[in-house]
Design a protein that fits this description.
110 residues, alpha+beta, Rossmann fold, two-stranded antiparallel ribbon, two-stranded parallel sheet, 4 strands, 45% helix
């Protein structure tokens, strides 16, 4: 039987990840075909990208379009959008260019 963990639903995902990074900065957080990153490394990269997103105007109710192959950078981009105070919209690489253009024109995202 697996251990049970109670999830604090009053805390958002970005904060939960940051808390885990503070508790176990040297533990492996992400692995993809090219890289293995610790919680501390992901937290640092997420924080830097979130600051850049905020400088571009992402904040509460901001929407960040994420168009990239699934990778550690993909996870960092999604977490950074949340940490900046916004949300993310996953745009699949397989979408036709016309659909991606219409998504961009009908939604306000960075």
């Amino acid at each position: 039987m697996l251990p049970t963990t109670v999830l604090d639903t009053s805390t958002d995902l970005a904060s939960l990840f940051q808390r885990q990074a503070q508790a176990t900065p040297d533990a492996v957080a992400l692995e993809d075909a090219h890289v293995t990153l610790t919680y501390g490394e992901v937290d640092h990269a997420t924080s830097a990208l979130a600051a850049r997103l905020q400088a571009l105007g992402v904040g509460r109710d901001g929407l960040v379009g994420v168009l990239m192959e699934r990778s550690s950078d993909y996870v960092i981009a999604c977490l950074a959008a949340l940490r900046a105070g916004g949300a993310f919209l996953v745009l699949e690489m397989a979408y036709p260019h016309t659909l991606l253009g219409s998504e961009r024109s009908t939604r306000r995202f960075h």
